[in-house]
Specification:
Layout: H1 10-17, E1 24-27, H2 34-40, E2 47-51, H3 55-58, E3 68-71, H4 78-84, E4 90-96, H5 101-105, H6 131-137, H7 140-149, H8 157-169, H9 175-180, H10 191-207, H11 209-223, E5 224-234, H12 237-249, E6 257-258, E7 264-265, E8 268-270, H13 280-285, E9 293-299
Parallel strand pairs: 1-2, 1-4, 2-3, 4-5
Antiparallel strand pairs: 5-9, 6-7, 8-9
Length: 300
Amino acid sequence: MSEFHEPVLLAKSLDGLNVKAKGTYVDVTFGGGGHSRAILNSLLGGLLISFDQDDEAIKNKIIDDNRFIMVNQNFRYLREQLKRLNIYRIDGLIADLGVSSYHFTDNGRGFSLKYDAPVDMRMDQKLETNGAHILNNYSANHLMRIFKEHSDFNAPQPIVNLIIKFREQRPINTIFDFKKIFQGFVSDRHQNKFFARLFQAVRIEVNDEINALKELLAQSLELLKPSGRLVIISYHSIEDKIVKRFMRFGNFSGVPKKDFFGNHSQPFKIITKKPIVPSREEVQLNNKSRSAKLRIAEKL
């Protein structure tokens, strides 16, 4: 089966993972399997466990390989699922937090601006809440929150007002309904970027992506062996800030913990002082990589 997602920063992320032939590794975002297949190429007697919550990605899983285990779950259940497999320590974890390419080409799930699909945006089709529910039922205050927190709109009140006004007349059911709300609100030149930010906010809320990421990172600190590597590719500033703080401080407050003697507690050695970004050539070959930032840390 063909891959869904062109692996972003593949060589750099694999270098960062520092794969040992007999090690145990976790790829929490299997997608089309690009990173997972590259990890398997370096394993001789080791084990790779890959997670994906999307049933479509599971169809692309690697078969007939006793070095590989597929888990059809959100990565927030990392510890629970590894415990079920009697795995309590790992040598490395990689997460490519980007939306898989096939989500944008599947015209029935509402991830793309191009198709008049239902406003769904669920990575896991078993989730009860979809994008249409949020747009039609969230209060003005809750809508303000998601556009501020998930897309960095500093003053989202006009956006929220237009959504409320539209839904008072008719439900927001499809992507084209959603786009129609903002006809004339932004110039043609800025439409794509504007809608990308709107979609991002709704998608993050639907899938509870920020809380899931925080839960994943907290569990990774517990599960990684000393010298184990944490490799994260993020695609927007909200995620990147969370990853950066966690790698530096082991928490999300941005304030270092102190030990009994008042010394700062540092859980990781930072391998990437600045995030690694794709080369111009990679961006030309895979435009979706343009906003990627790779950060790598080693457990102390």
